[in-house]
Structure formats: C-alpha cells, structure tokens
Amino acid sequence: MGLNIVKETKQAIKLMLSIIGIAALSTAVQMCTPPPPPAVEEEPVISEEELRLRQFECQKVLSTAFEYYRNREFGSAVRNYLRMIDMGCGQDNAEYVYYYLGRAYIELGNLDSAAWAYRQGLRYLPENKDLLTNAAFVLGRLGDTENQIYYYTRLVEVDSSNTEAYRTLTDLLRKTQQWRELVIYLRAWGEIDPGNTQIQSELINALAQSGEDPLTYIRQRWETNQSNVQYGMEYAERLLDNRDNTMAYRVLETLIQNNPTARAPYERLADAALDNGDIDRAISTLLSLFELNRTDAATAIDLSQAYLRKRDYAQAVRWADTAYQVATNKGEALYYRAEVYYTAADDCVSGTESGVATFNDKLVFQMAYEDYQEAVGLGYRRARTRADFLQQNLIPTRGDWFLQEASLTVFTPEGQCYSWITRTVNRP
Fold first, then answer.
1. Helix 279-292 with 297-309: angle, nearest 10 deg
2. Which of 12, 90, 152, 270 could form a disulfide with 85 if both were Cys (CB 3.0 to 4.6 A apart)?
3. Is the CB of residue 153 less than 8 Å from the CB of residue 176?
4. Helix, strand, coil shares of the chain as percentages rounded to 5?
C-alpha cells in the first residue's frame, strides 16, 4: 500500500512539473511564427496507460490554446494545438483541436495549413458538420473546386436538411457543368424543399443540359398538382414549343377551370390560339378574361384586334369603343379603333376590280384619320405616321367635297361593305 502511495505522489509531482514547463514554454515562444503542420500526419502512438496519465496535461494545454484563440492570439493558439497533437491528445479531442486549429490558421492567412487541419479532424470525425463546412470553405478559397464539391457532397449526405449547403453545391456543379450530378442533388434538395420554385426551374434546365427530356418531369409535376398555375404554365409552354397545341390547350383550360380568377392561363391560351389561327377560341377566352375585370382596356383592345382578324368589323369597333370608355390611355384605344376603320376601308378597296377608293371608301378613311389625329393629340405618337399617310393619300379632297350635294353637311358611307357603320363624317 505504501509503495502505491509513493508511486502516485511521484507521478503527480512529475505532472505538475510538466504543466509548469509547458506554461513557461508557451510564454517563451508566444511571439514566434507558428510552426507549420507536422510532415507526418499520424499522431504519435502511445499506450492507453500513458494517455491516461497525460489527460490532465492535455486538458491544460487545450484550455491554454483556447484562451489564446479567444484573445485572438492565433499564433500561440496554433502552437498549443499542435503540441496537443504531438502529445497524442488530438484524436480524443478532435472536435476541439482540429476545428479551432483550422480557424486559427485561417485567421493567420495560412489556408493550406487550415485545409490540413480539417482533413486531419475528419479522419477521426468523418461526419462532423463543422469540420466538413470549414473544409469546403477553405478549399473554395484555395480554388480547389473539385475537393470543395467533394466536401459539400459529404456535408449534404450527413446533414440532409442543410439548404445552404445544397445551394452552394448546386451552384458549384452548375458552374463546372456537371449536369448529371446536378440533377441528382437538385432532386435530393427538392425532396426537403418541395415548394421551392427555383429548385424546380434549375432541375428542368439541368435535365435539358444533361441530355434528358425534361418534359416527363414537368408533366409528372403538373399531374400531381393540377391547380398549380406555375406548373401548368411551364408544362403548357413546353407543349407549345413541341407543337402539341391540343394538349397545351387542354392544360391551360384545366388551369382556368381550377383557377378561374388567375389571368395568366387565359392570356396564354388566347395568345396561343391567335398564333395558331384559332380565332374563335381566342375570342372566347378573351371574353371570359374581360369578365374578370370589365375595366380592363388591354383585353378589350385584344378583343377588337381578334375580331378584326376575323373581319368582323362591327364587333371590332364595338370592343375598340369599350376600350376607349374604360382606358386610362385614351390615345391607344383611339389608335386601335382607327385601325379597324383603316383595315375595313382598305379591304373594301382591294376587293373592287379597279382598286381605286371611292368617296364612300374615303369617308371611312376619314374616320380612321380623325381617330389617328386625336390619338396623336393625346400623346400616342405611334399614330402620326398613319395620320400623315391618310391625309396625303386617302381622305376626301376639296374636289371630292365639291362634287357632293351642297345641302348635305353630314355623311354616312353607303354600300354593303359599310353596312355596319353608324358613324358620320362632317363636311369640312
């Protein structure tokens, strides 16, 4: 029993002397340049008994190192953390030693050594999120994109809810054009954030870049949620690009049915129908859209133009008049009403054998001219060219007015071609 007490007393004295020596050494070398990482990456192998005896000394050095780190004396912090590694204490304290050693090296601007510290720490703690995050950061600063991507992939595997890591990883994969890998991680990210529209758009682009047809993904996404306007719009756009107009119309009409107050599906369906010459479908859609907002001058103008393409001049004028009544920009509405009269008169003249404008035709051109002129006066400058052309070429001349019965002061164009017109023109 007595021998054991003596033995423990000697060990305690030896340990205290060691602590005093370490403190003195730290003070002596504090102002020196911190040493680089050891050339040999393995920690010294010591017995469990020796390691147990060193625990107090290890904790003392660890506490000293952290004090230096907290006081921003990073060179001294590095020396103490490296001493712990030399003592064989790094593995058991890896979470604290290698994380703060790497941070201290970063503060000193020694990024290569910081990368070494994080790699060493990850040998002992391969799933430590802080070490993985800092390793990826340092490698990015060093321009080592390949290994930076590797550590980010490890990080999202360990911490699948880390959206910031997914964001950075997908940015790196996109910049390096690793499209197949990008598809994999965008899908994984989308599973934890299914409502993120940016992820979905990125995935569609990545699928296309990787050589896969994204239409299957877009269709499946739409079929699982047919009330989602964005999903339906993207699917319809792809279908229209592929000239599958019938299916595109069906998708847009389903969107309208499920979202009767959403304007975008109406507008896209009307545009698509007009582009494909399906005027009646376009008109029907625009009429429904106008019912959502009966002060919508833009839709009224679109209706006027759609009826004009159908050569239904009476309806075209009616909707141009409606646009004028509700429009803030009266000049634009007048311009499109003038377009109806101009087109109607031009069609009538073109339909004759002579191709020469009669007085009745000129009266309709006069109506168009008056609207163009008024539109210019209201600031709609686009109408000026039309107005100038009509004034010089197609409206009634003094000679035309001279040939009319002198007692008449108000004129209405006559003939089947203009039976829809109720408007009049005053003799100048």
1. 160
2. 90
3. no
4. 75, 0, 25
Burial grade of 351 (CB within 10 A; 0-12, 13-18, 19 or more)? exposed
Q: Which amino acid is at 428?
A: P
SS3 410: strand
How far is residue 289's CA from residue 283's CA, in Å, rounded to a whole number?
Answer: 10
What angle do helix axes 94-107 and 111-124 make, rounded to 10 degrees? Answer: 170
State the DSSP string of 240-265: HHTT-HHHHHHHHHHHHHH-TT-HHH
Tokens of 346: 């031009």
CA separation for the pair 116, 138 (Å, rounded): 10
Distances (CA, A) of 97 to 72, 85, 107, 135, 188: 16, 8, 15, 14, 33
C-alpha span between 93 and 98 (Å, rounded):
8
Tokens 């054009």 -> residue: 177
Cβ pair 168, 155 in contact under 8 A: no
Q: Which long-range contacts (CB under 8 A, 24 or more apart) does 238-241 make?
A: 238/214, 240/272
Spatial neighbors of 345 by CB under 8 A, at least 6 apart, are: 357, 361, 362, 364, 365, 368, 394
- The pTM score is 0.65
Digit-by-digit pLDDT tens for the chain (428 residues) are: 332 322 333 333 333 334 334 343 334 334 445 566 655 455 556 666 666 667 788 899 999 999 999 999 999 999 999 998 988 888 889 989 999 999 999 999 999 999 999 999 999 999 999 999 999 999 999 999 999 999 999 999 999 889 999 999 999 999 999 999 999 999 899 888 877 878 888 888 898 898 888 888 888 888 888 989 988 999 999 999 889 999 999 999 999 999 999 999 999 999 999 999 999 999 999 999 999 999 999 999 999 999 999 999 999 999 999 999 999 889 999 999 999 999 999 999 998 878 899 999 999 999 999 999 999 999 999 999 999 999 999 999 999 999 998 889 999 999 999 999 999 999 98
β-bridge partners, 426: 410
What one-letter code names the amino acid at 199? I
